[in-house]
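Students often ask why inverse folding is considered easier than folding. One informal answer: many sequences map to the same fold, so there is more than one right answer. In these notes we will look at a single instance of the problem. The structure comes first.
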């Protein structure tokens, strides 16, 4: 592993150890090169990279034999994207895989020729990444996490668990164009449900502390954490605060529930990364990204933490438990 100024560089080709395999692959057929551009670090995104690699294996790809994956990690510093993308392009990558809107927008700006498979991008049409979901055009396709009324359903879940809820705090990241859209959707849904929203735009770990201090002052009745890696990577601190201040919540990532949160509702991000391998396979076999429709989530996960509910003094309604895909005791 090397550390460069442009960011953390990790490669699945482990030098001499894989050289014989690479030589053998070159003799028997083409070795495809995939670039994986991550927002943070290998350790923090292992739960997403793992399913992607499994998906490739299921399709017959063996790392070091007929495919090599070049990883580049921004370590949460999105200004590093241009340099990391330039490295991948210089390596003659066959296809790039990105997770989330910021990385995808950075690749779109850098190249119109290298195929790109995006994963878990919130609103690829609204943010200008593709022309349409059915006919994306250009060099980009993949999977979106967007679903009509998703934010409204999260608020409805909160109201179902806390019937008298009238004030909710929301953490979102204004750096991401999709988060700007999602924040607007939450406020619109809250207006219908007659809820007041304490909207807290957060860009850095330091700003998380400022936001938590604001929540402590305003004392809303619940917490909604939107889908951004910043919150995923700082979930322990956020969920510790929520428990301390007895704040029920529904969040975009299941990992926040595993860290002590009450509920999460949204698509399976691990499942989307596994599905991304199918798009990579089609492109490596000659398909054009322009002709591959962008896929919407087919299923959603509702994860409920009964231990957290007990600590909050809440009884989870049977209507919620019956819809749960997983219950943490």
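Output (designed amino acids):
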């Amino acid at each position: 592993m090397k550390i460069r100024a442009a960011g953390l560089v990790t490669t699945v080709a482990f030098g001499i150890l894989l050289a014989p395999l690479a030589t053998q692959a070159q003799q028997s057929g083409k070795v495809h090169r995939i670039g994986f551009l991550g927002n943070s670090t290998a350790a923090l995104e292992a739960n997403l990279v793992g399913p992607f690699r499994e998906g490739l294996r299921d399709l017959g790809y063996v790392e070091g034999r007929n495919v090599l994956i070049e990883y580049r990690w921004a370590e949460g510093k999105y200004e590093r994207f241009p340099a990391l993308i330039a490295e991948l392009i210089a390596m003659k990558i066959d296809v790039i895989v990105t997770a989330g809107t910021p990385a995808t927008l950075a690749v779109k700006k850098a190249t119109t020729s290298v195929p790109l498979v995006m994963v878990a991008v919130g609103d690829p049409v609204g943010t200008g990444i593709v022309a349409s979901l059915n006919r994306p055009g250009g060099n980009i396709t993949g999977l979106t996490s967007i679903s009509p009324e998703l934010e409204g359903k999260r608020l409805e879940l909160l109201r179902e668990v806390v019937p008298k809820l009238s004030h909710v705090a929301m953490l979102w990241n204004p750096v991401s164009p999709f988060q700007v859209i999602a924040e607007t959707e939450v406020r619109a849904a809250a207006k219908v449900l007659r809820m007041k929203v304490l909207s807290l735009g957060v860009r850095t770990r330091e700003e998380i502390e400022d936001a938590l201090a604001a929540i402590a002052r305003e004392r809303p009745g619940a917490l909604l954490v939107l889908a951004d890696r910043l919150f995923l990577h700082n979930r322990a601190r956020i969920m510790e605060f929520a428990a301390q201040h007895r704040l029920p919540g529904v969040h975009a990532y299941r990992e926040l529930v595993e860290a002590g949160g009450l509920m999460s509702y949204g698509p399976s991000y691990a499942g989307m990364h596994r599905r991304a391998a199918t798009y990579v396979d089609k492109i490596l076999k000659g398909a054009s990204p322009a002709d591959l429709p962008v896929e919407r989530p087919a299923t959603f996960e509702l994860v409920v933490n009964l231990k957290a509910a007990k600590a909050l003094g809440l009884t989870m309604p049977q209507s919620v438990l019956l819809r749960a895909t997983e219950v943490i005791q």
